[in-house]
Write a structure and sequence with these properties.
With 358 residues, the protein is α/β, with parallel strands linked by helices. It has two domains: 207 residues, 3-Layer(aba) Sandwich (Isopropylmalate Dehydrogenase); 140 residues, Isopropylmalate Dehydrogenase (3-Layer(aba) Sandwich). The protein is built from twelve helices and twelve strands. The strands form two sheets. A ten-stranded mixed β-sheet has the order 2-1-3-12-11-4-5-10-8-9, with helices on both faces. Helix 11 packs across helix 12. The radius of gyration is 20 Å and the shape is globular. It is found in: Cytoplasm. Its EC number is 1.1.1.85. Its cofactor is Mn(2+); Mg(2+). InterPro entries: IsoCit/isopropylmalate_DH_CS, IsoPropMal-DH-like_dom, Isopropylmalate_DH. Pathway: Amino-acid biosynthesis; L-leucine biosynthesis; L-leucine from 3-methyl-2-oxobutanoate: step 3/4.
Length: 358
């Protein structure tokens, strides 16, 4: 039975980088004797144009039945009207909710060969290898009510920040498991001095911590975490936080790596193979030019192999090939080089060295 992967190329550079990721997945499949079956569907702005909705029911149903979902990016100026009733981002939020992927894993690693690509001083970047675990299906992005206010000629708006105990516990539990398998340090980021949801968050972290005595836990206010992320990033191992804080902090962490084009992500739930996507956006300014950095998508394919298909050796091989390509000077334009998307993809493929399957 082949593994079924739904590919959602999306908008902008999404189709270009997902094609690069597919080439790498095919190389892994050829070596390990894996049978892969792809199906391609619409999401985001292109889905609005063709289907009238950012994610149709048939696409969501197919994603729910798949072994894994590979996503490009959504959005662009064409659909960037905040008053529009249908927006590309609605498809992404509906996909996350529909798949039940409550934990977004965003590894941030500084490659020695790219240490000068970051605006931070090199001594601050040595040894940076952290993992952000972001709660993905609760908080402000999904809270109800969301509404506009009209009162005495004034205009306002309401967004509700809601978290239930089970939503917090399941993502925190996963974060502890990951920290226990890494360096045994977990930073829980909240705003417990102000927000009631953060006080509940902190309470549940303390409860879960009792089951993981081998993990050192610290509670960090989000403003302090933002400062420490650039002042002493190597001090972090695993960071767990709520939805909006995680969204902001991981974009900040892209500065450490030197380019947002380098960072992958995996979104996991209690069941199913998960959702895999680079953290960058659709970059409409360079779409169609063949110059987008494919490494975030390729590294997302490595996470798909690891978590979705349980192919750890193949995942490591892809990650090592990316590191070798960077060490040997392969660069796309965002990294100061001149390689096209396809040339960078081929550089990774040429450096793949798979272990013999067991």
């Amino acid at each position: 039975m082949p593994f079924h992967i739904v590919v959602l190329p999306g908008d902008g550079i999404g189709p270009e980088v997902t094609q690069a990721a597919r080439q790498v997945l095919d190389a892994a499949a050829a070596h390990y004797g894996l049978a892969l079956k792809y199906s391609e569907r619409l999401i985001g702005g292109c889905a609005i144009d063709q289907l009238g909705t950012a994610l149709d029911d048939a696409t969501l149903a197919e994603c729910q039945q798949a072994d894994a979902v590979l996503l490009g990016a959504v959005g662009g100026p064409k659909w960037d009207d905040p008053t529009a009733p249908v927006r590309p981002e609605q498809g992404l939020l509906a996909l996350r909710k529909g798949l039940g992927v409550f934990a977004n894993l965003r590894p941030v690693r500084v490659y020695p060969a790219l240490i000068d690509a970051s605006p931070l001083r090199p001594e601050k970047l040595r040894g940076v290898d952290l993992l952000v675990v972001r709660e993905l299906t609760g908080g402000l992005y999904f809270g109800q009510p969301k509404r506009r206010l009209e009162e005495n000629g004034r205009h306002g708006a309401v967004d509700s920040l809601v978290y239930w105990d089970y939503e917090i516990e399941r993502v925190v539990e996963l974060a502890f498991q990951l920290a226990a398998a890494r360096r045994g340090r977990l930073a829980s980021v909240d705003k417990a001095n102000v927000l009631e949801t953060s006080r509940l968050w902190r309470q549940i972290v303390q409860q879960v911590a009792q089951r993981y005595p081998q993990v050192q836990v610290e509670h960090v206010l989000v403003d302090t975490a933002a400062m420490r992320l650039v002042a002493s990033p190597a001090a972090f191992d695993v960071i767990v936080t709520e939805n909006m804080f995680g969204d902001i902090l991981t974009d900040e962490a892209a500065v450490l790596a030197g380019s947002m084009g380098l960072l992958p992500s995996a979104s996991l739930g209690a069941a199913g193979g998960g959702l895999y996507e680079p953290i960058h956006g659709s970059a409409p300014d360079i779409a169609g030019q063949g110059i987008a950095n494919p490494l975030g998508a390729i590294l997302s394919a490595a996470l798909l192999l690891r978590y979705g298909l349980k192919q750890e050796s193949a995942a490591r091989a892809v990650e090592q090939a990316v590191e070798r390509a960077l060490q040997e000077g392969c660069r796309t334009r965002d990294l100061g080089g001149s390689l096209s998307t396809q040339a960078m993809t081929e550089a990774v493929l040429e450096r793949l060295s798979f272990e013999h399957p067991s």
